[in-house]
Design brief:
204 residues, mainly alpha, 8 helices, 2 strands
């Protein structure tokens, strides 16, 4: 479909197969099952523990390197990274929704000081100190978020990371956001370590 801005949308209606011939497309037979698949994976514990990942199809396939893989259930990761349990913190879920607006106002109010930073200096020298974090909490409370002391402390590091990353996006676009955010992204850091290691990364 051609779009008015000169771009285009390509809607894929085919099914997805890996090079070994495995079908990894979720079945469309039951729309409710299709839509609820992610939440069921979460409830089963397979996003938290690799031991909970069930093989749904015993059909064997062989990769180009001769490795045995099984059909059904999508792709089982070779490097398992458990889901961050901060996503179970309801305060974090509510508070993070207000980070964008707070960061926008903060940058707007402090632009004369912030424009002195380049991205390298911002990464090394700009910190979300306690005063700024308390300002954010006050903003979130004003927006209707219930402040829960234990959960605030539990989510502080994750909120500070996201807040610094969003401020970086305001100043340096997506390059700034990902430079900051990826430093604290466990999945990204583990994948980066695997790619940089001498051990060959396994692929299909």
């Amino acid at each position: 479909y051609d779009l008015s801005d000169g771009g285009a949308l390509r809607l894929t209606i085919g099914k997805y197969y890996t090079p070994s011939g495995r079908l990894i497309q979720k079945p469309y037979d039951d729309s409710s099952t299709y839509n609820d698949e992610l939440s069921k994976r979460y409830e089963s514990g397979e996003l938290s523990s690799a031991d909970s990942i069930a093989v749904q199809d015993s059909t064997k396939f062989f990769t180009a390197s001769g490795r045995v893989v099984y059909g059904g259930g999508g792709v089982t990761p070779d490097l398992f990274i458990p889901i961050d349990n901060i996503l179970e913190n309801d305060f974090f879920i509510q508070a993070r929704q207000h980070i964008n607006n707070f960061a926008y106002r903060y940058v707007d109010d402090n632009r004369s000081q912030l424009i002195e930073y380049d991205l390298d200096r911002f990464e090394k020298e700009f910190f979300i100190d306690e005063d700024l974090f308390l300002d954010f909490l006050a903003f979130a409370k004003k927006e209707g978020v219930k402040i829960q002391n234990g959960k605030v402390e539990e989510s502080k590091a994750a909120l500070k990371l996201r807040l610094k990353a969003i401020i970086a996006r305001q100043l340096f676009q997506n390059e700034g956001f990902y430079r900051i955010f990826n430093k604290g992204d466990k999945a990204f850091q583990k994948a980066l370590k695997a790619v940089q290691s001498e051990q060959k990364v396994i692929v299909e």
